[in-house]
Design brief:
Layout lengths: L4 H22 L13 H8 L38 E4 L2 E6 L4 E2 L2 E4 L3 H4 L8 E6 L3 E8 L10 E4 L7 E5 L4 H5 L8 E9 L4 H9 L15 H4 L3 E2 L10 E4 L10 H11 L3 E4 L4 H5 L13 E4 L9 H16 L4 E4 L6 H12 L4 H15 L2 E2 L2 E2 L4 H21 L12 H11 L4 H11 L1
Parallel strand pairs: 6-7, 11-14, 12-13, 12-14
Antiparallel strand pairs: 1-2, 2-9, 3-4, 4-8, 5-6, 5-9, 7-8, 10-11, 15-16
Helix pairs in contact: 9-14, 10-11, 10-13, 11-12
């Protein structure tokens, strides 16, 4: 018996160790942080970003959808119990999304951001699988402004007891069709690319400096300074479609250039994505512009590409083009986000290649960014490639939300995908054909 005693003791110790290890692996319980907790209201304040200056909602035709774009501070009850996350491996966490985590179109995971950031870091790209809905790739970031408009993110704010799955100027739960009645829902997060968004973070945080003076852009032409250009992509007719910054906003310092360039190009129909008619007339000197004497549709849509109000406004703008002669000019405030998306859709409809769509979109950012100490420093190749990727991602994501999947492999039949997209928005085949005829 004495000889067997050490063996029995060893077996007992191993058994206890095995049980302890088993328990520690099967369930991961986050430690309570000692830092002050961030409330849901504070999270919402950090995440919400204002829309571009001059944004308003058209009073007629799309006013019935205006409530979709109202930005409010969430008031979800934060008195909740943190849910355990099952640790599958070193890079994957599983959550149960409860009813109280689906509020105001956002998705809140009751899990401490500090614990999450011990496994994932700001700037990582993760795969978020929402069981029964979609699997998305998105960066881990701190604010919606860390990603381009329409970009998705996992918002992990240090000190917060929640993670937020959201988007810049979009509500992810609404995009995916998730409501509180759908809970509980399984959500898993796994590593896609370590540090894969660090360049994006640097660009979004450090390159967006622009100026109102031509002297700050010594290497740009007047047209480039005004962000004014004709669209020359495949399938587009000559002198049919133009794009620019606002022809009426004094504070941008570009309006007089745009107005005179539009007149020289013979533009007869303007699509104004930024203003209502009343807000347009409030700009000093508006009545003396060439712009004010032409056909104008005032849409006043916010840069929320997934929203009903933006989709309705898009269709109204296209129908206005069908009803009026060109040449056409599309603008918003800077001619960057709303204009960039609408022009990309028109380019895609007419048969543009992926490269053409990307080059035209990225040109706007080269025309604005980056002014340092009063002089523009040209974007480098990596920065330009980032903006090229943005428009491709936005088109694919917005089309996907309407049930239209665009393949990742080239060549892409953008015309077919866009015709289906416009059909989902309510345009008839005849209207789509007429729009194409206007632009040939």
């Amino acid at each position: 018996m004495r000889k067997n005693w050490p063996i029995l003791v060893g077996l007992l110790v191993c058994t206890q160790a095995f049980l302890a290890c088993s328990n520690s692996v099967s369930t991961f319980v986050a430690n309570e942080t000692e830092k002050p907790q961030t409330t849901t209201e504070e999270i919402a304040t950090v995440l919400e970003e204002p829309t571009e200056p001059g944004t308003s909602v058209q009073e007629i035709a799309i006013s019935d959808t205006a409530s979709d774009t109202t930005v409010t501070v969430d008031t979800v009850n934060t008195d909740t119990t943190t849910h355990d996350a099952a640790l599958e491996d070193s890079n994957e966490l599983h959550f149960i999304l409860e009813e109280d985590g689906i509020t105001s179109g956002k998705i809140y995971l009751n899990y401490p951001a500090d614990s999450f950031l011990t496994r994932f870091e700001i700037g990582d790209i993760v795969t978020v699988a929402i069981n029964g809905y979609d699997t998305l790739e998105m960066p881990v970031a701190e604010s919606s402004s860390d990603v381009p408009i329409a970009g998705f993110l996992v918002a992990a704010i240090k000190g917060s007891d929640q993670l937020v799955l959201t988007a810049h100027n979009a509500k992810l739960a609404s995009v995916l069709g998730i409501t509180a009645e759908n809970a509980p829902i399984e959500v898993s997060v796994s590593m896609k690319e370590k540090g894969g968004y660090l360049l994006g973070l640097d660009i979004m945080r450090n390159t967006q400096y622009m100026d109102t003076y031509t002297e700050s852009y010594p290497d740009l032409s007047v047209e480039e300074f005004a962000n004014f250009r004709e669209v020359h992509t495949t399938g587009m007719g000559e002198h049919k479609l133009y794009r620019s910054s606002s022809p009426i906003y004094l504070y941008l310092g570009r309006n007089y250039y745009v107005d005179s360039l539009a007149q020289a190009a013979g533009v007869t129909t303007f699509i104004n994505l930024a203003d209502s008619e009343s807000s347009a007339y409030s700009n000093k000197g508006y009545e003396t512009t060439y712009y004010s004497t032409q056909n104008i549709i005032f849409l006043g849509v916010p840069p929320e590409f997934f929203s009903e109000i933006f989709k309705v406004g898009l269709v109204i703008g296209f129908r206005y083009m069908i009803e009026h002669e060109g040449p056409y000019l599309v603008h918003c405030t800077y001619g960057m986000d709303r204009t960039g998306f609408m022009i990309a859709v028109l380019e895609a409809l007419m048969g543009a290649t992926t490269e053409e769509i990307q080059d035209d979109y990225a040109k706007t950012f080269s025309n604005y960014f980056t002014v340092v100490n009063g002089k523009q420093v040209a974007l480098n190749e990596q920065q330009i490639d980032f903006f090229k990727a943005v428009v491709l991602r936005n088109l694919k994501a917005v089309y996907h939300a309407e049930g239209i999947d665009v393949p990742d492999t080239e060549p892409i039949d953008w015309a077919s995908a866009t015709e289906r997209y416009l059909g989902k928005l309510g345009m008839t085949p005849e209207e789509i054909s007429d729009l194409k005829d206007r632009l040939k």
